[in-house]
Fold:
Amino acid sequence: MASESPVPVTVLTGFLGSGKTTLLNRILSEQHGKRIVVIENEFGEVGVDHQLVIGAEEEIFETANGCICCTVRGDLIRILGQLVKRKDRFDYVIVETTGLADPGPVAQTFFIDDDLKEHFQLDAIVTLVDAKHAEQHLEDVRAANEQIAFGDVVLLNKTDLVSPADLARVEQRIRSINRTAKIFRTQSAQLPIDKVLNVGAFDLERALAVDRTFLEPEYPFEWGGVFELPAGAVRIRTGSEEHDHDHHAHHGHAHHHGQDHNHAHDPDHEHAGHEHGPGLGITFLRVSESSEGVLDAQVEHVLRAFAETPIDVPCGGTLEPGAHLYRLDVGHGGAQFTLDVKEPGTYAVFCEHLPQELSLRFEGLTPSAERQYASHHHHDDEITSIGIADPRPLDPKKLDDWLGYLLQSRGQDIFRMKGVLNIQGEERRYVFHGVHMMFDSKLERPWGATPRQNSLVFIGRKLDRKEIEAGFESCVAA
Structure:
């Protein structure tokens, strides 16, 4: 590596037991040709970067597999300062935090002064998540939420320990906290090393390539699909296939006449797993054609439908296509319903949640077109992602004032921010990114033939969308 090139740094984080050590050992044992310095936090202090140490001896040594372990005692800045003197001995730095650590202060280190920025470049924050225990951790531990919020890359690990439905629900929970992260499902943290090292994930344009929806307006629904529906009764089911069989055996043929199904006449029904279950908002609209574009054309109609008071439908109940919002009682184990189609044709279906979260399916039918939408019904009310996409040029002085105010007033609440901006009178892209109150920006390559577009994302705690949107609006050039 040329001495003037900044050394890429990956911050490895994740809650206790998520698989950080497993991933690190895989990285260090593979023959990838990189000479890697590892800096570990041994003391378990939360968010204290000066406790980042790696051992007792102040030396660097090279091992047979190309890895270099740095064992310098002292704070992270001092370690990095020592490493600058030996840049010819390594190609990469990995900083592993403890399971209870907020990775923010570690990431901030690489924004502190020009000398550090000259020699080191934050490549990505990689967060590991234990799929089996993630929901419990996210409910009980603040740091677990913050680790996901900071992540550029998230490894949803130990996927073999949970069901597909549970896995989909956990992934959606992660996405509700951080919509820009790239998520990989893994077992024993196994995935190609180039997915976590030297990925340039601290880059908004790459984030946009991962998820095109995160800068879109937020909707009260997450999924839309187009179906060709025949006339007559269409079965809608949730839950596992096994539940379908058990449920049918328990209720006999009652569900062939969903409109006649009456819980009051079935004393055993309350044991079938439907009592006090979650609801699913859903609406059906007749459309003219089968395409993803026809879904987007219906958004305004669907927004109006989702603003109405829903019609509750119990397990076994019947619903009809039309501009009505239904709330299906999907229970805890699964449920089934009858869609009474009067006229055959093409219908758009919009759901509050992704179908895979509840194993939602239309018996014997598959969508001819479908797409996901960015939703605003977050599972975590405190940590959210806010995206802005707008082509109008920005006034550089007003932008400077707004970002400065935002950092001073909300810096502690903003975990991550990054953006590519269209500055009035400037032919080059203005790129910025930051962690809490630490901020870095620069002019990069020219826009060229690429359409100019402001793309910004903020991830943080209790962020006020209206406040941020109004601040951005104040920067638009007159």
